[in-house]
Amino acid sequence: MTGFAKRWGLRLLEAAITLWLLATLCFVLLRAAPGGPFDAEKAAPPEVQAALAAQYRLDRPLPAQYAAWLGDVARGDLGPSFQYPDYTVNQLVANALPVSALNGGLALLLALLLGVPLGVWSALRAGRWTDRVLMFVAGLGLAVPKFVAAPLLVLLFAVTLHWLPAGGWGEWNNLVLPVIALALPNLAYCARLTRASMLETLSAEYLRAARARGLSEARLLFAHALKPALLPVVAWLSPALINVVTGSAVVEQVFGIPGMGRYFVQGALNRDYTLVLGVVLVVGALIVLINTLVDALRGWMDPRLEAATA
């Protein structure tokens, strides 16, 4: 129990240091970029500009701004938004996070539900024309970036076929194209990874011995091969989720979805310091949490990994 508590205590410390370094780096880079949040107000009288700077603490020295912002974050206050003066960053994040989580969660679920069976099916038919065709299509899925795939989906299904809306939010059919655009590269990679892992597992000595004892191919697959073959897929979940989070910025912009990615892009373009920093902190915390959960899942599926880190 002591070792377990020590291990998780170190993980929490590493997570806190990682988030602090991420926030500090983002704070410095934002302030170093040319322009400011109220450059459009240059035509305003000097007293108005001074009042805006004082309201948002931009008239203070940079170390004082950093210390004040860090103190607010420690109290759970991400500060006011410069671009959306009627809202705090906490309110914007609270509204946007469920939207991005729904899109990203459905995209990753679709990638797993299709990618794993396709990868297993391809491994069982390794070398045949169906396997070659599937891996070729998966390679295309990896090669096409999201900023190309998303407009192509809009052009095909919204503009040409009129089957689905080109953007917006609020109806179930608004989810279809964004989820597909987010899922495509992950689906392709999941299928290729599952195929490679399954081929390696099927050639293991213990499976040859089990096959020699007369076990059916179905039992070999589901009882002995599938779980170890999925270990690389589980390890891939962390970068897959990060890929979904980073890709949401492009997809949400294309489809006009009010999610975290769109707020991040708009905040960066308008120098909304507090909004960008708030999104970075929340996304960074989610990534740390995801990595921790994936590590725990891998340890449950393969106790040797947990023993190695003990």
TrEMBL record:
What positions does the domain ABC transmembrane type-1 occupy? 97-298
InterPro entries for this protein: MetI-like, MetI-like_sf
Keyword Acetylation on entry? no
- What is the annotated localization of this protein? Cell membrane
Q: Which UniProt keywords apply?
A: Cell membrane, Membrane, Transmembrane, Transmembrane helix, Transport
- GO cellular-component terms in the record? plasma membrane
Q: Which residues form a coiled coil?
A: none
Q: Which PROSITE patterns match?
A: ABC_TM1
Q: How does it sit in the membrane?
A: Multi-pass membrane protein
Q: Which GO terms describe its biological process?
A: transmembrane transport
Pfam families the UniProt entry points to: BPD_transp_1
Transmembrane intervals: 12-33, 101-121, 133-163, 175-194, 229-255, 275-294
- Do you know which PANTHER family this protein is assigned to? INNER MEMBRANE ABC TRANSPORTER, OLIGOPEPTIDE TRANSPORT SYSTEM PERMEASE PROTEIN OPPB
**Which family is this sequence assigned to?**
Belongs to the binding-protein-dependent transport system permease family.
Record protein name field: ABC transporter permease subunit
* Organism field: Agrilutibacter terrestris
